[in-house]
Give the backbone structure.
Amino acid sequence: MTRLENPSVSIQDLSLNFGAISVLETLNIDVAEGEFIVLLGPSGCGKSTLLNCIAGLLDVSDGRIFIKGKNVTWEEPKDRGIGMVFQSYALYPQMTVEKNLSFGLRVAGIPKDEIAKRIARAAEILQIEPLLQRKPSALSGGQRQRVAIGRALVRDVDVFLFDEPLSNLDAKLRAELRVEIKLLHSKLQNTMIYVTHDQIEAMTLADRIAVMKGGVIQQLDAPQKIYNRPVNRFVAGFLGSPAMNFLDGRLEKNDGNWHFAVEDVRIPLATYAFEKEPVPGAAVFGIRPEHVAFNSGSGWPFTATANVVVVEPMGSDTLVWLKLGNQNFTVRVTSERTPNNADTVSIGFDPMRASLFDAATGNRL
Amino acid sequence: MADLAVPLPADTGSIGLEASGPRGPKPRHVFSRRNIFLYGTLIVVALYYLLPLYVMVVTSLKGMPEIRLGNIFSPPLEITFEPWVKAWSSACTGLNCDGLSRGFWNSVRITVPSVILSIAIASVNGYALANWRFKGADTFFVILIVGAFIPYQVMIYPIVIILREIGLYGSLSGLVIVHSIFGMPILTLLFRNYFTSMPEELFRAARVDGAGFWGIYFRIMLPMSLPIFVVAIILQVTGIWNDFLFGVVYTRPDTYPMTVQLNNIVNSVQGVKEYNVNMAATILTGLVPLVVYFVSGKLFVRGIAAGAVKG
């Protein structure tokens, strides 16, 4: 992988085993100064474990961790220049908000007036001034998470670590706090590493997303790049809701042109940008539901007819489940032009927006 | 199971449903068979357990002539506190005739340091086992727990020798050490389970904040674990106060705890059996654990439920 010039956080060949179970395998990642990196993956993919390793809460089996150019592999969490925000907030229940914020500073023996100054600043940024004398039990979920962020803020750290900070909140609050975290990042310009299994959070917040599976980073790229050009079938299927359509078929070359043959349908691939020169064989064709249009008539490189199975209105748009031959296929359309059940509709799309994967390895073709 | 009939909204009459049907909570009868059976059983069992206590209290308030009449259930005709005074301050055990008061103070001098010492050590043990997963922690824990299953009697003689060798045999501090050691398995288990049930992220947050082993223990864990400390105190106070075996083995007559002294008063073979004094002495000895239970009843149940069952 490519190395950055002056990374804020640099993970080199990091491995972690619990006994015989390997959780992280020679993992490498560089995070640039002021970058917002999201570690995204299903549960058990090792994303939280990686975060805990960076924080120093877990001892690594192999490899090195650099923060701000300093090797912190053996350092205590407090000496790494990190602040951490936890999913369950982890506020000290017996202390007021103010004491919660100042705990780390008091432990470090920082003078009182300095503590007061830093708390005032953090409270102002997070707008929790009226809550300072309350106990955590008297706060709402959103307020608690704000205090938890504040606790990282007052420590004046280089790197913020977020461990699924919004997962305990309801949908509305989650959306609100997501925006606040984004604002906070643009205001502070700190390096932030954010763990989540929520793809919306990942897409909206990240400068770059690292999609993880089985302790290995599958793809590390800008959100749009990951969304539009996933490197393998796992990444393609994990991102996007509703999920990408996958059609099993064969890659064929007829008359010098590449086609994707699924049952008796042949999709021309003239507009598709192959990663490298393809070879004929079994493959998977993936296209996102929003890249397919209805009743398109002419102008599409590929059109077909399909039967409507189920219609799911979702408010802003509608999801239509189709049968294309024997394979399930979903299309996302605006709500005005919704077909009825059992209709036969014609669909069209441009294979330029599609993704082709090797059937065996799952890698992008 | 109570309300199978769904209460009907008020305006359903207009669409032809029965307007006068069941609505609101289903009525319950005080004298249902269920209630009679339940409360009847409870009352019978309570009486069964309280009867001996009643006999003790009544007998302790009677004079000897009245006791000799043999009506152990009848209330005293003439209430006298003489037996209580005698039990406390002038009942004889061997050569000493200063009553249970000596044993009481001995028991206090044994219980207080034992409780403090054992809880202080066990809570740190439990905290280390729950949060600082050091190498061999599980083995250590298993060894400690096995200790809880070994009958005390097996260890009496070896401990006698150990105490003799280190010169503490017969002294109060020797007994304090014995009590602290024997309280360790169950208390460590209690504290470990309690600390394990606390959110781990709290511990991690404290570590990121820079607090060390003792910093986290005193500033984060301790203030959050009042209930389990109360439970531990209750367990230890009652356990150590009620102990007879260690008391009789590891102390001398002038340092006997209250229970041993009670036994010596009640079981003395010469002279007349003074049932009223014996009863009063027994109640006096049992008073401390009784008070502890009454004062802390709710906390005790809560703590047991929170700490001991989980994990």
